[in-house]
Amino acid sequence: MLAQGGHWQCRPVGTSDMTLATRTALLLSGIFTVVFGVAVLLSLNFFEQRYVFLAGQHQLTTLQSYAQSVEGKIGTVHTTLAGAGKLVDTKLLGSPKEAQRFLDSRTFLQRNFKQGLFLFDTAGRLVAASPTSMVATRGTAITDTETQLVQRTLSQRVPQVSIPFALPGAPKEPLIALSAPVFGPDQAIIGVIQGSLELLDANYAGNLAQVKVGDTGYLYMLTRDRIMLLHPDPARRLGLAARPGQNKGLDRAMDAHFQGTTETINSTGLHALATFVELKSLGWILAANFPMAEVRQPFRQSLNTIAGFAVVACALLFFLIALLVRRLLLPVRLLTQHLSAVGQGTAQPIALPPTGELGLMTQAYNQMLTDLQTSESARMDGERQLRELNAGLEQRVLERTEELEKTNTELTHTLSTNLAIKNELVRSEKLAALGNMVAGLAHELNTPVGNALLAASALRARTQDIGDRMDAGSIKRSDFNDYKTDSIGAAILVENNLHRAASLIDNFKQVAVDQTAEHRRLFNVDQTIKEVVSTLEYQVRTRPITVHMDLHAGVSMDSYPGPLGQLIVNFFTNALAHAFPVDVKGNIWISCARPTDDTIKIAFKDDGCGIPDANLGRVFDPFFTTRMGQGGSGLGLSIAFNIATGMLGGTLELASAQGKGTTFTVLLPRVAPTLAAAER
Questions:
Q1: Could you point out which of 12, 102, 315, 651 has its C-alpha 20 to 30 Å from the C-alpha of 198?
Q2: ∠ at Cα 608 (595, 650), nearest 5°?
Q3: What is d(CA 17, CA 133) in angstroms, rounded to the nearest whole number?
């Protein structure tokens, strides 16, 4: 459509336009129809599965009622047989004639036990059988199966049910025997009453052989040994129902005690809906075969009708959608041509009917053209301003770049200076600690060296005196013995004090070498801690502080003993400086344990004044100290933290409360990580 002079005119649509509209309409209608068809098929499949499930549930319910009926009938006659056994006594069993009259009078039992009613004594001998006519016609008084049932009843003293059997020379009709023990007044077993019945008699399961499941389906019953008891085909009775693997549904019922309905292929190759129910009191399985073709037949008949309606509906739906899409696409195609002209710069306003969705689209298109013209003018103005801004911005960027380069150079120099200052402070802190150790060593050496010097001076004077007496000839044996005793005591005193001095020097030497060289080696943790603490004892000797050590002996580490000793020294000096005021009693505990094969746990604890909560987050910061101007550098705990988490490769935890003491817990690997020389 084109608007000329305010009037609407129609323009014929070209062949290409008609083809596009038609193809689009067919495509959309085809897609919708296919989706609709798939949805219908899925729905029909769901309803078919639901129909099969409901048919299986109905079949299971019916089969359960049949099984309960058979069990109930056999259970009733078995109970009646056991009740008759309670009327039998020793006197009756001792008189065959009385026993025969007793059995002949049990008319109810004779109607049910058509294959014989028997009385046996405790030796398993037959005392009486009724009716006598049946005994004459059955060909044998009692079969092996019936004899075995008697023996089992006598041994187990409870009612029994035999396995199914058939009479020799008779047709294959399954029989079962029921028995009940006969007890005397003292509950001693005195005999057995037993009856044999025809399983397929109308009173029991005979009617089930005539039951039809659908038109060709049937019921069958078998034992756990797969012996067929009930089947519409008499030739299959008392034969093998199916070998394992021939009927997966039956295998499942046999092996997994499955009860319910499932689809299976039976031993004859029939695809059937099979249902299995167990007769628990007898141990048998009652099953039903319902051919799947018959199960689905009612649904398939309805499905054909529904499918016809669905095809007609799909055809109509396809036609209506194609027609509707075509009518909508013709004006949309015209609008598309005008939109294409926008990209070519030849767009003109268009006019379409002012109502409906197409009218709204036309108004939006015309408004878009107006907005485009306005935005184009604004864009041109913006480009001009942007060029002007870019010219000034480039100059400012150059100036800022020069300033940043200058600032970066100064910052790099400052960082290098700060790093050198920090390293120097750390080195000074270590040298100060080593100086304190030297002072402590000198203090500790004064005592043993002084004692040795005093003993040596006394020995010299004593030797001079004994020499003078010897020269004068006035020496006595007692004087010489006294001199000997005094000399030995003085020598022992000198030797002990010199050993003490040598031990102090060795400890100091090992600690000093470790802390200055920082060599990695294999060492015992407890020995290293003892050596370090021995160099610090002079600091607590003049104060009322007690040091307790609980060190796990024989724990070795492949690590750096020097930094480990520095860690203990820093904890020790920090506790003496901050935890305990002068002349205040206190305790320090140092423990070493091995929580796992690969870790070492060292704990340093004091019962001093603790750390305020406000300072807990800052104690490991470099240069943080609460004794500024009093000799504290603020690096002690910072160095300890860096040693524990850096070179030693462990963790350091702090626990403290004001007034309750402080605990530092260090968890270290037994084998320290390998660090580069630059990192160390």
A1: 102
A2: 30
A3: 103
